[in-house]
């Protein structure tokens, strides 16, 4: 049909069809939120129920048994673009579902991500609240609950501590503040109140950098709120005069050209370090 | 059984779009062609296969009779199925022994509506149709059950169709039969008319069987009904040079080849099959016509034709055509 239709075939109000006792029982049970099958003379359970056993042609027994409500997906096929008559308006799977206790499979829709779809998937019905006695009283089937999402959010007011506050204050003046251990003479940046190696109290303050050397680095391909452009480079930089490296962004150079041992210099902006950049030849 | 043979076969040059011809206009040339081929202008029995839902008009098959010139009144019947099943009815009619010729034709213009959803209307109205289960969806369920090299089937069908002047000119292989408009006709003869002719494809066996309608009540990897029909038609009683199978989806060929017990050397769908042209309601009849043509032109001594109806190969007809009666 290449264009908009100019002819419609429709039977106003639809056909009224008798269900007979077997299909009628199934649809009545569906309306009540239950799924039943019918037993054959061979003791198999047909779901949905038929008036005859398709294997023998013999009438089925007047013996209805509740099945499911859960079942197992056998064959399935994915619908990327649902049609207007389909049960769901988003991508879904058609599946042959073997309900627990049944010996045949029910054709119905499964509302699940395509990655979750597989033969053997356990599914449960999702019922319509306004049931009328139709196969569509089952809106669709959905996978079993196997995971939950646990949300965490708590709120704080934090302070940097005495040493880090002095360090950040110095950064506002474009200065890296360090501390030298009186015992082992290690120079730590950021500035700290005690030596993490020997425990001595640090009293001597000194300025280090703003130039330094890249000791190692990583190229990051997942964006970060602080570095939305990818790829970006985070580097360990040993500032001149310091014995411990700091971690910082490295920019103004293609990621592939960054190398260990590279000389870099801090670029200050707005009272903090924007990033480090390759040191220009004087 | 009373011997019956195919004496003539014609089909339209199928199109993937509405060529502007009405259904009687589509049928007219193929009716004329089989009349010329068979040398018969009147037939003891006439039977057609079509689907009113394709045209969206009740009793649309009645107007198709305009293409025959059905006056004075003729003995005529119709099936709301592929015309291969109309051919079966004509074969049964010829078994009565009082008439010696039958005209069978089928036609369909899938271009006018949405075939995938029209096929939903053939499903049971209680359990399947309300879900909106369309043709591609139920075929997809069967496809997921079947293992095989579907692209290879599509490619071989496409390559075979390059030498079929009636097939669509598809730019690349497809695993789903294309939307097609077209028609076909066959003349069957029996009794004295058999004796007068030499260029015939004898129907040495023909049978159809049906599986449960509901796909969830079947093993979709197999076709029990196609196997039963093949046994009843006597497929295994001799070599099979050519098989024309009603394969609307590539995976169906794997199911059918196994069910029919086709030997390894059988040439399957040398016409390209329905994956190259699928004028719904004529497609199955064309399988019989193509198989008969191979027998009549001498490229096959014994050929098998298959036609299907219903969801996931529910209903299957198998015919064996032979040079020898």
- DSSP strand tally of chain A: 16
For the largest beta-sheet of chain A, the strand count, sense and barrel status come to: 5 strands, antiparallel
Percent in strands of chain A: 25-35%
Question: What is the strand arrangement across the widest sheet of chain B?
Answer: 3-2-4-5-1-6-10-9-7-8
Gap between N and C termini of chain A? 74 Å
List the topology elements.
The complex is a heterodimer of chains A (282) and B (325).
Chain A lengths: L19 H12 L4 E4 L5 E2 L17 E3 L4 E9 L12 E8 L6 E5 L11 E6 L10 E6 L18 H10 L4 E5 L6 E2 L15 E5 L2 E10 L11 E8 L6 E5 L12 E7 L2 E7 L4
Antiparallel strand pairs in A: 1-2, 1-3, 4-5, 4-7, 5-6, 7-8, 9-10, 9-11, 12-13, 12-15, 13-14, 15-16
Chain B lengths: L3 E8 L11 H16 L6 E5 L2 H4 L4 H5 L11 E4 L3 H13 L5 E9 L5 H4 L16 H11 L4 H12 L19 E10 L1 H4 L5 E10 L13 H10 L8 E3 L5 H11 L6 E2 L14 H14 L5 E8 L5 E8 L3
Parallel strand pairs in B: 2-3, 2-4, 7-8, 7-9
Antiparallel strand pairs in B: 1-5, 1-6, 4-5, 6-10, 9-10
Summarize the structure.
The complex is a heterodimer of chains A (282) and B (325). Chain A is mostly beta strands and 282 residues long.
Describe what you observe in this structure.
The complex is a heterodimer of chains A (282) and B (325). Chain A is mainly beta and 282 residues long. Helices cover 8% and strands 33% of the residues of chain A. Chain A has helices spanning 20-31, 162-171, and strands at residues 36-39, 45-46, 64-66, 71-79, 92-99, 106-110, 122-127, 138-143, 176-180, 187-188, 204-208, 211-220, 232-239, 246-250, 263-269, 272-278. In chain A, a hairpin with a 6-residue loop joins strand 5 and strand 6 (106-110). The mean pLDDT of chain A is 92. With 325 residues, chain B is α/β, with parallel strands linked by helices. Chain B has 2 domains: 4-113 and 179-195, Peroxisomal Thiolase, Chain A, domain 1 (3-Layer(aba) Sandwich), CATH 3.40.47.10; 116-164 and 204-322, 3-Layer(aba) Sandwich (Peroxisomal Thiolase, Chain A, domain 1), CATH 3.40.47. Chain B is 32% helix and 21% strand. Chain B has helices at residues 23-38, 52-55, 60-64, 83-95, 115-118, 135-145, 150-161, 192-195, 224-233, 250-260, 283-296, and strands at 4-11, 45-49, 76-79, 101-109, 181-190, 201-210, 242-244, 267-268, 302-309, 315-322. In chain B, strands 3-2-4-5-1-6-10-9-7-8 form a 10-stranded mixed β-sheet, sandwiched between helices. In chain B, helix 4 packs across helix 11 (283-296) and helix 9 packs across helix 10. The longest helix of chain B has 16 residues, at 23-38. The interface between A and B is large, with 40 and 36 residues.
């Amino acid at each position: 049909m290449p264009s908009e239709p100019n002819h419609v075939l429709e039977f106003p109000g639809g056909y009224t069809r008798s269900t007979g006792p077997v299909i009628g029982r199934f649809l009545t049970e569906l309306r009540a939120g239950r799924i039943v099958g019918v037993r054959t003379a061979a003791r198999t359970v047909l779901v949905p129920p038929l008036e005859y056993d398709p294997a023998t042609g013999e009438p089925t027994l007047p013996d209805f048994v509740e099945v499911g409500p859960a079942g197992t997906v056998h064959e399935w096929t994915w619908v990327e673009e649902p049609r207007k008559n389909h049960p769901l308006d988003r991508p879904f799977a058609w599946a042959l579902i073997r309900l627990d206790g049944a010996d045949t499979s029910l054709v119905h829709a499964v509302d699940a991500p395509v990655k979750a779809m597989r033969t053997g998937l356990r599914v449960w019905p999702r019922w319509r609240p306004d049931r009328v006695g139709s196969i569509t009283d089952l809106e669709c089937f959905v996978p079993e609950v196997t995971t939950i999402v646990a949300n965490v959010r708590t709120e704080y007011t934090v302070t940097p501590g005495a040493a880090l506050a002095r360090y950040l204050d110095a950064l506002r003046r474009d200065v890296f503040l360090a501390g030298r251990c009186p015992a082992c003479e290690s120079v730590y940046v950021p500035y700290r109140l005690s030596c993490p190696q020997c425990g001595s109290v640090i009293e001597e303050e000194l300025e280090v950098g703003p130039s330094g050397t890249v000791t190692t680095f990583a190229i990051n391909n997942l964006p970060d709120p602080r570095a939305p452009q990818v790829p970006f480079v985070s580097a360990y930089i040993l500032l001149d005069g310091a014995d411990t490296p700091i971690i910082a962004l490295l920019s103004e150079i293609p990621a592939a050209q960054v190398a260990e041992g590279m000389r870099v210099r801090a670029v200050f902006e707005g009272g903090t370090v924007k990033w480090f950049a390759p040191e220009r030849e004087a | 059984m009373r011997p019956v043979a195919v004496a003539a076969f014609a089909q339209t040059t199928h199109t993937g779009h509405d060529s502007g011809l009405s259904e009687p206009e589509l049928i007219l040339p193929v009716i004329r062609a089989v009349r010329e081929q068979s040398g018969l202008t009147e037939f003891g029995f006439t039977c057609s296969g079509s689907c009113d839902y394709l045209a969206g008009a009740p009793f649309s098959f009645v107007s198709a009779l305009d293409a025959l010139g059905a006056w004075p009144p003729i003995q005529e019947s119709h099936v709301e199925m592929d015309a291969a099943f109309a051919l079966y009815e004509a074969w049964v009619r010829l078994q009565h022994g009082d008439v010696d010729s039958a005209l069978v034709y089928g036609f369909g213009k899938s271009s006018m509506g949405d075939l995938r959803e029209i096929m939903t209307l053939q499903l049971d109205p209680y359990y399947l149709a309300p879900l909106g289960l369309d043709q591609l969806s139920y075929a997809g369920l069967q496809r997921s059950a079947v293992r095989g090299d579907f692209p290879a089937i599509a490619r071989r069908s496409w390559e075979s169709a390059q030498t079929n002047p009636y097939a669509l000119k598809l730019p690349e292989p497809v695993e789903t039969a294309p939307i097609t408009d077209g028609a076909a006709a066959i003349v069957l003869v029996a009794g004295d008319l058999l004796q007068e002719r030499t260029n015939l494809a004898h129907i040495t066996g023909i049978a159809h069987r049906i599986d449960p309608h509901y796909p969830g009540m079947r093993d979709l990897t197999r076709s029990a009904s196609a196997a039963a029909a093949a046994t009843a038609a006597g497929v295994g009683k001799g070599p099979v040079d050519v098989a024309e199978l009603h394969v609307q989806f590539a995976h169906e060929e794997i199911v059918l080849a196994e069910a029919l017990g086709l030997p390894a050397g059988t040439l399957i769908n040398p016409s390209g099959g329905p994956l190259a042209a699928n004028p719904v309601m004529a497609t199955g009849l064309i399988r019989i016509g193509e198989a008969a043509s191979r027998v009549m032109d001498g490229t096959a001594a014994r050929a098998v034709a298959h036609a299907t109806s219903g969801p996931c190969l529910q209903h299957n007809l198998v015919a064996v055509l032979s040079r020898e009666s």
